[in-house]
TrEMBL record:
Gene Ontology MF annotations: CoA-transferase activity
Sequence intervals crossing the membrane: none
Originating species: Amycolatopsis umgeniensis
InterPro entries attached to this UniProt entry: CoA_trans_fam_I (IPR004165), NagB/RpiA_transferase-like (IPR037171)
Name the record gives this protein: Acyl CoA:acetate/3-ketoacid CoA transferase alpha subunit
């Protein structure tokens, strides 16, 4: 069996300018932040980012990595809006495709099934149609003749997800309350990369949780990186909850363009080990 272990920087080195990448998780929950930070350290640019967005979107926008964003929402959960996302929308520095949660998920499902589109009732009669005039409807060929929204597939060049546990072959497991849409991100992508709190022996995955918690098969995974605390400052329950104090610090710095360079210098100017050291020192200062 292939050993798929990689470092975050090795994973990001496989990206190219202009790629479409999907980022799993949900808002400020179980985001692959160590991989996002690796993108910040890299020269890659002009990305199309597809995300149920949280601080992943804000941080990538802050560094000018995003050319186009496809999103169902962008939020920090306990803080309604990510300041960098708000700034990007206000200044028009990125182009966007704005869906609702249902339309976004239908687009991922279409790509996961290798279909050009999927029909849904989601989005009909809402502002989604006004915001996306290129969307088309189809009519059921059966007796009901119902008109449905035809959501185009959200095809991804690469997907990044963060799971609680994985083995070296890429089998990956969530231990929290919700798988979110991580499996769809993996299925919709040509390549899927997993960051995980801990790489364990395969037998330990079965011991840690029920079979349905084994979310990703190794057949879907190109590379896996062990990144303890790698979802910080988002949640990765049951390993840890959201670091609310740090998230507030991030949001306050992101609102203030004069304060932001100091935040970057303290937390984002080095590698992942330096980030985790700075976070630990920040926690000790509370």
């Amino acid at each position: 069996m292939a050993d798929k272990r990689m470092t975050p920087d090795e994973i990001v080195a496989e990206l190219e300018d202009g790629m479409t990448i999907g980022i799993g998780g949900w808002g400020s929950r179980r985001k692959p932040m160590a991989l996002v930070r690796a993108i910040l350290r890299s020269p890659v640019k002009d990305l199309t980012v597809v995300s149920y967005g949280g601080p992943d979107v804000g941080l990538l926008a802050s560094a000018g990595k995003i050319k186009h964003l496809v999103f169902g929402f962008v939020t920090l959960d306990s803080i309604p809006y990510d300041p960098w996302f708000s700034r990007a929308r206000e200044t028009g520095s990125i182009t966007v495709t704005e869906y609702d949660e249902g339309v976004f998920g239908t687009g991922l499902s279409a790509a996961a099934q290798r279909l050009p589109f999927l029909p849904t009732r989601a989005g009909l009669g809402s502002g989604v149609m006004d915001l996306n005039p290129s969307l088309r409807t189809v009519r059921s060929p059966y007796d009901d003749a119902e008109e449905l929204l035809a959501v185009p597939a959200l095809k991804l060049d690469a997907a990044f997800v963060h799971l609680n546990r994985a083995d070296a072959r890429g089998n990956a497991q969530y231990l929290g309350p919700d798988p979110y849409f991580d499996e769809l991100f993996a299925l919709a992508a040509d390549r899927c990369y997993v960051s995980t709190e801990k790489i364990v022996e395969t037998a330990e995955l079965a011991e840690a949780g029920p079979v349905q918690s084994l979310l990703l098969s190794r057949m879907l995974v190109t590379g896996v990186a062990e990144t303890p605390n790698g979802a910080h400052f988002t949640t990765a329950v049951p390993d840890y909850g959201r670091d609310e104090r740090f998230q507030r610090h991030y949001a306050e710095a992101a609102k203030d363009l004069e304060a932001w360079p100091k935040f970057v210098d303290r937390f984002l100017s080095g590698d992942e080990a330096r980030y985790q050291k700075a976070v630990a020192e920040f926690g000790e200062s509370a």
